[in-house]
Write a structure and sequence with these properties.
Largest sheet: 7 strands, mixed
Strand order of the largest sheet: 2-8-7-6-5-3-4
Order of helices and strands: HHEHHEHEHEHEHEHEEHHHEEHEEH
CATH superfamily of the largest domain: Type I PLP-dependent aspartate aminotransferase-like (Major domain)
Structural class: alpha/beta
Distance between the termini: 25 Å
Shape: globular
CATH architecture of the largest domain: 3-Layer(aba) Sandwich
Number of helices: 14
């Protein structure tokens, strides 16, 4: 699938900052309602039906582990207090886990706040954002709010980020967003490819900062992959972003963080919301941080059910790209919005459309029983 930047922009119907912001809201659905300025007289948030199978937001269906839940219960007594000490303790625990000093970590309300900080710190009307297309949209919409333009580089035929194209577009950019593994395509780049990409951007545009979003880091099985943390610790133009929303099962608790050089993180802290860490989330994250038993178990659960789902869709004749995350990207060979609507009518929520991949559906991986029920719905919808 050869996709030009012009075709991508034409697909979105972009005519300016307001247009791209509106397009993102229109395409994202439920996830778009969180944190996006919207007209208060507009439609309310989508109601949650407990009978629906929710495969639309890349959540961990099993939730936090027992240790995290125990920590939440133990922290109830501090719920009336501001989270000053828990915020400090959380950053210190994360730093210790990664073997770095405390000033090499900034925590936030999910990775969403970290990406907002990065967009506000490093983009402006004169410093664009460079990103893949499609990719996780939060940095794009935050950059638009900051007055920046967005240079979107379409993914390649294998649905992988076009790193060479992104490096070329980085000249003069304030920020490059590299989601690895990439959401929504579930593809990943090797450690060597990422290191080469950083060198290319540093050479092309020495003042540009690169954020490597590793939200799905713990799910990766590709042996060529490795975290970009070593790059972030030695290079002041690189940041790594992580979250507790995925394999840790804490999407509703909103804990994320960035790791990088202290001089770079100082720029982020200028845009950090005060008291953005909640007491219960901090307690759960600290307790769960180094529980390798939880990570191993949930990685295997995800692998097994993801492969079951992939095999089922491929047996129906639909191509599913290789996934290194807790979701898959399937070419359903029809309008993905119609597929989404038809599945919702039968009680299964799947991901929103991701221009310009308008025949591809992103399907999050639920529990085995959820996916067995969802597969039957897919059979009906796909004929």
């Amino acid at each position: 699938m050869a996709l030009s930047r012009r075709a991508f922009v034409r697909t979105l119907g972009v005519g300016g900052a307001g247009a791209i912001s509106g397009a993102l809201v229109a395409f994202r659905g439920r996830e778009a309602l969180a944190g996006i300025p919207v007209d208060p007289s507009g439609p309310p948030s989508l109601p949650v039906d407990p009978n629906q199978i929710r495969l639309d937001s890349n959540e961990n269906p099993y939730g936090p582990g027992p240790v995290a839940l125990d920590a939440i219960r133990a922290a109830f007594g501090e719920a009336s207090r501001y989270p000053d000490a828990p915020s400090v303790d959380l950053a210190a625990a994360i730093a210790q886990s990664h073997g770095v000093a405390d000033d090499h970590v900034v925590a936030g309300s999910g990775s969403g706040e970290v990406l907002r900080m990065a967009a506000f710190a490093f983009t402006s009307a004169s410093r664009p954002l460079v990103a893949g297309a499609p990719t996780f949209e939060d940095p794009l919409r935050h950059a638009v709010v900051a007055g920046a333009s967005v240079r979107a580089v379409p993914v390649d035929r294998e649905l992988k980020l076009n790193l060479e194209g992104m490096a070329r577009e980085a000249d003069g950019a304030g920020l490059v967003f590299l989601c690895n593994p990439n959401n929504p395509t579930a593809t990943v780049h090797s450690a060597r490819a990422v290191a080469d990409f950083v060198r290319m951007v540093n050479k092309t545009s020495p003042g540009t900062v690169i954020v490597v979003d590793e939200a799905y880091h713990h799910y990766v099985e590709d042996p060529s992959y490795a975290t970009a943390l070593p790059l972030a610790l030695e290079n002041p133009r690189v940041l790594v972003c992580r979250t507790f929303s995925k394999i840790y099962g804490m999407a509703g608790l909103r804990i994320g963080y960035a790791v990088g050089r202290p001089e770079t993180l100082r720029e982020l802290r200028r845009h950090r919301l005060p008291n953005s860490i909640n007491v219960l989330g901090a307690a759960a994250a600290i307790a769960a941080l180094d529980r390798k038993d939880h990570l191993t178990r949930h990685r295997q659960l995800n692998h097994d059910v993801r492969e079951m789902t992939r095999r089922a869709l491929e047996s129906m004749g639909f191509k599913v790209g290789r996934s290194e995350a807790n979701f898959i990207m399937a070419d359903v060979r029809r309008d993905s919005k119609q597929f989404q609507d038809d599945c919702r009518k039968l009680g299964v929520l799947v991901g929103r459309p991701f221009p310009p991949l308008m025949t591809h559906a992103r399907i999050s991986i639920g529990t085995e029983s959820e996916m067995q029920r969802a597969i039957e719905v897919f059979r009906k919808v796909l004929g």
